[in-house]
Amino acid sequence: TLNRVVTQVADFKKIFAFGLQGSVVTPFFGASLAADFRFASPDMVFSPAHCRHGLHPTGALPYFLPRYVGQGKAAEILFKGEPLAAAEALELGLVTEVLPADDFERRCVKALQPWCELPGEVILSSKLLLNHANRLGLKRYFDTEAALLH
Predict the structure, then answer these.
(1) Please, what is the angle between helix 120-130 and helix 132-148, to 10°?
(2) ∠62-97-76 over CA atoms, to 5°?
(3) What's the confidence (pLDDT) of residue 133?
């Protein structure tokens, strides 16, 4: 189910954003990286719970993370299992902006306003070009992940 959600987010034809608050575990942080934009509250912490539970990281985190931070930093984040605060996630380019926690949802919507005012065809064609290489790669990634579980 989560893989289907990640694929739908990655293939969504309109602007898609995640708002991240509090402790965000591996599958949801990975899924958020499929979106166009991610906003975090100052208290947001990515908690790589997969390490504590002896599981592989899910939510396509190993697929998307190297695209944002490079292979070496992605390996460090995935293997160390240390929490990653909102400020560091912003510095690494994993979140678009850190917004104040008060009235967080309204602030997220307001931050998206400039992009949502773009003509629909600009958004659609830009997303098609941005995600062109991801489509086939993401399917192959999920096939590999499924094979690990059998």
Answers:
(1) 50
(2) 30
(3) 66
